[in-house]
Write a structure and sequence with these properties.
This protein is an alpha+beta fold. It has a domain of 111 residues: 2-Layer Sandwich (hypothetical protein PF0899 fold). 16% of the residues lie in helices and 31% in strands. It has 2 helices and 8 strands. The strands form 3 sheets. Strands 2-1-3-8 form a 4-stranded mixed β-sheet, with helices on one face. The radius of gyration is 21 Å and the shape is elongated. The chain starts with 17 loop residues before the first helix and ends with a strand.
């Protein structure tokens, strides 16, 4: 979702209060549960909240009484959510609001599939392979493929992305 969530005209977490950042996180969790048709229960499944490196420290924002931070609230309310800092997310958005994106995903989903249930897979299917050899009148023509690898999202319904938070 574009626009960095809810809570104020400013979408950047640097300009948001404790309540507004918490609302952004709740909105992302609700979106994940809704788009998965309740397959993902954040109180039972392990989730990962990937934040831009330039925004992860805003989890230290405290409420108006100074008694609890966003990170403490998240740990108490959703203990299965793991927070990671990802420098790649600092400039992951191309919108005009801001460059940072927040990604929330279920690590594994029990959806009765026959695979391991992981949302993401790191795959390296081939390091080098010959595509083909053709014999010509005066020689051979050979084609090769370079290494292929990457991350594969096997369950897009288990991922939600929010842009413009940093």
């Amino acid at each position: 979702m574009a626009g960095g969530g809810t809570g104020s005209p400013a979408t950047l977490w640097s300009g948001k209060t404790f309540n507004q950042i918490v609302t952004d996180i709740i909105t992302a969790i609700v979106q994940l549960r809704t788009q998965s048709k309740d397959t993902i229960d954040p109180e039972k499944l392990a989730l990962t909240l990937a934040l831009p490196t330039n925004a992860v420290d805003y989890l230290a924002t405290v409420n108006t009484l100074g008694t609890i931070s966003v990170r403490e609230w998240l740990t108490q309310t959703y203990p299965n959510v793991r927070v990671v800092s990802a420098p790649q997310l600092n400039t992951a958005s191309s919108n005009s609001v801001g460059g940072g994106s927040m990604v929330l995903f279920a690590d594994r989903v029990n959806d009765l599939s026959t695979d391991d249930g992981h949302t993401w897979a790191q795959v390296v299917p081939a390091k080098f392979m010959v595509l083909g050899v053709v014999k010509l009148a005066k020689g051979y023509e050979e084609d090769y493929a370079n290494a292929t690898a990457g991350a594969l999202c096997k369950r897009p319904f288990a991922v939600t992305t929010w842009t413009g938070i940093s």
